[in-house]
Amino acid sequence: xxxxxxxxxxxxxxxxxxxxxxxxxxxxxxxxxxxxxxxxxxxxxxxxxxxxxxxxxxxxxxxxxxxxxxxxxxxxxxxxxxxxxxxxxxxxxxxxxxxxxxxxxxxxxxxxxxxxxxxxxxxxxxxxxxxxxxxxxxxxxxxxxxxxxxxxxxxxxxxxxxxxxxxxxxxxxxxxxxxxxxxxxxxxxxxxxxxxxxxxxxxxxxxxxxxxxxxxxxxxxxxxxxxxxxxxxxxxxxxxxxxxxxxxxxxxxxxxxxxxxxxxxxxxxxxxxxxxxxxxxxxxxxxxxxxxxxxxxxxxxxxxxxxxxxxxxxxxxxxxxx
Length: 322
Hints:
Elements: H1 3-23, E1 31-35, H2 42-54, E2 62-66, H3 73-80, E3 88-93, H4 95-103, H5 111-114, E4 115-124, E5 126-131, H6 139-147, E6 152-156, H7 162-174, E7 178-182, H8 186-194, E8 200-204, H9 205-213, E9 217-222, E10 249-256, H10 261-276, H11 278-286, E11 290-291, H12 296-316
Parallel strand pairs: 1-2, 1-3, 6-7, 6-8
Antiparallel strand pairs: 3-10, 4-10, 4-11, 5-8, 5-9
């Protein structure tokens, strides 16, 4: 065998060995991805796509389990108490891992002490929508109704979630008169918005876009710095006359603290493989999710920077979890 052929053989052998080496760091049981919200929201969509894509690179695949309640704190706290062997991880969001620690005196977990970062999976944009029967066609008309004596009712996927932060920032900024109704995820809130039981909802684009496209709800303003490519005719808050309302949502996975570093690396490798899969990337594009990925340290820095950022916003605006 020539030196060149030998090198090619060794490289091919190493490539086939990589999955086995990763498998050796994980128990031969499915990785349980706990989504601390109800099915149907963007957090659930992203977790299920990641489970699908990473399955072939895990010893026994991955499954998603929804554990909603207390704005995501119930499911997140459960994972904090789980055995740190790599078989139980939690979907982390801007609510549970950004604003939540400042909204709640005792969420049931300590992000810095109870978890180890695994991977930052993706990010999404947000949009403000209203029920079709609301007599308001633009942001100025919605705000006028929200300032009237009868006010409006807005929903969220839980206290401290991104779709709670936006309306509360508007309340403190403009003196709005609206009532907050927290749900156990975006799915139930969307159902009530379509049914006319709430008036306003700020939501991640992936979970609300199908309802916008179907004409079931009316988009009012993009909660972003620029217009959304999927909704080019919908202005941003700044374009509609209210600057400073920009909230991007993101998702990632955390494992219980004391999970072995080799196990974290094996999980990170499997989920990075999922994010490189053309099928998963195509599905992400279809549902308007921006794929991210990278080492565990990127997720750790995301959590640290977001908790600092939203902690300051919450204190400055005197926001609370109701």
